[in-house]
# Entry
Amino acid sequence: MKENTPIIVDKKKNTFWEVVLKFLTKYRYFFAKIGISILTLALSTILLFFILRKIPGDIVELYALKLQNAQGITYDRAYELAKSLLNFDPNENVFAAFFRYIGGLFKGQLGESYLETGVSANSLIKTRLPWTLFISSVALFLSFFIGTNIGGFIATRRNGIANKISSSYIAITGSIPDYLIALILVIIFGYNLKWFPTQNNYDAFSVTPGFNFPFIGSVLYYAALPILSYTIVQTGVWILHMRGSAIGVLGEDYILAAKARGLKESTIRRRYVKKNALLPLITMLGVSFGSLFGGATLMESIFNYPGIGLEISNRIVNKDYMVVQGLIFFSAAMVIIVNLVVDLLYPLIDPRVREK
Amino acid sequence: MNKEKFSDFLSTLKIFFKNLGHNLLNFLKKIFSSKKTIIGFVLIMVFVFIGIFGPLIFPYDQNTDVANKYLLPSTEHFFGTDWLGRDVFRQVIAGTSSVLEIAFFTAIFTVTIGTILGIISGYVGGVVDKIIMSITNIFLSIPSFPVYLLLAALITLESSVSLALIISLWSWAGLCRSIRVQVMSIKERDYIQICKVMHMSTFHIIFREIMPNVFSYIAVNFVVAMRNAIMASVGIMLVGLAAYDPTNWGAIINAARMKGLVNYKNILIMIYPLVFIIIFQISTLLLSNGLDETLNPRLKVK
# Structure
């Protein structure tokens, strides 16, 4: 009994650091991923900041003139106020400006609009993001569902007519720019057949926003065309990925073993091929979901759909750079964060990664 | 020592280009064995022909002629006229060279940046690799299209070259990453190890051993970069930025769209550049797929 005590004391001494070390080595994968993400976010912030420095300095003067007229204060005071409101000073030292910019980001101020008072990148994200996420995520999951089913099916019948049809579909939708497909759809269904509206997100004259059926119906009716064109564009990509992934899985030994056991082809396709081929695609789905937060600039501007993308393009044209800066920072941050989450969750889904 | 290295570098470069010319005939025979490549190449050559000789045969007159506005297609005006009486066919022809310039310059810039950084990152490895990869990560995580718009608004665009620079500045990252992976796998093979043991120069290894192996991949990506350049540049013009050339296909579509699509005559005007863009994109897709099939050894095995 007494002989054992020193060993226990020794263990107690090292317990904390041992645990930390064990923890670190066990979850090295996670910490490396988190570190890389933080680094990337920091570096992108720096890069965006240096693009911001290219903004012509006269926008502060213009904003100050506007404030002077609106509030009846002297020009110097208005200029000071403009600098603090815009979080931008053309005559400031680069480093000081950088630290102020970072400080603003930490306080959660992404950027104030200089065209409209009271509008900032934060408020725009709050009002526009739901619309962007609504149409793009519905379309993403719809096209993922359709594309993976078709892709898994044609991987097993590579000489059939379905493969030829889907190959030409992929070629056509892959080669035409997505916004031009949207434009063609708008021309056909919006202006020629007049089946669907071509502008806006809901009928502002006849329905009131809220949780009522006319409003939801109107939103769905107005979203039909954007969702349709997003889905048409993305389905081809998912078919291509799923076919490639499923063909890879079909060459594995366990498929051969399943065939040797005399399992039905449909069972093999459902239980073995599809399940394993979907795994790498889930990562891609996550990455695509991350890129939705920035909005699809051109798609939204063609449908005039009030999402983040339309806001970005309109504000760039109107030279409202501070807001644009904030919105681009937001979408880059969301891409990085969602990628990180996908990377961290992937070992839970796929045990083969965990082993490494 | 430095001078010696430099002359060594020059001679390896010379051999690289000499061999390129020597093998060009075999190479051409090989790549034109695919039907897709032939169709894609011929179509692109037709576009190049239109771009060079089109404006000479059908010169575009910018003067407005309001009396003849919104004419339907006829033998005099093949595609009709627009809202100011200008010939749409001649506009589209005049825009071809501008579109091709953007595609060509963007592809050159993108492939150059991506290849150089990818080879350095994959070959040197270590800290250099980590630095280049973290830079690549930034460019991949900031969404590209808004940045194109932002840069196009901040820098006054006057020519195809500056637009091409903006687009390629944000599109080399994917290519860089995939070339890095290829170089890393080639680096581990026996013949490179033997070269290293024999103390051959780095220039020799990169230009004579690694470059020929990734060259096919670069060729395919050159065409892909052209396609992406058209996608991005037409997009930038659709927003209304980069309005230095009103005859560019994207600019014609944007102008017609701004006039209002409720009037079906504007739709008729924008259909022609739309069809031209689609044909061009399909021909680049055919060319890149055809090249990929004939050059990529990974696909040949199957």
Notes: The first helix of chain B runs from residue 2 to 22. Chain B touches chain A at residues 134-135, 137-138, 141-143, 145-147, 149-151, 153-155, 227, 230-231, 234-235, 238-241, 253, 257, 261-262, 264, 267, 274, 277-278, 281-282, 284-286, 289 (CB under 8 Å).
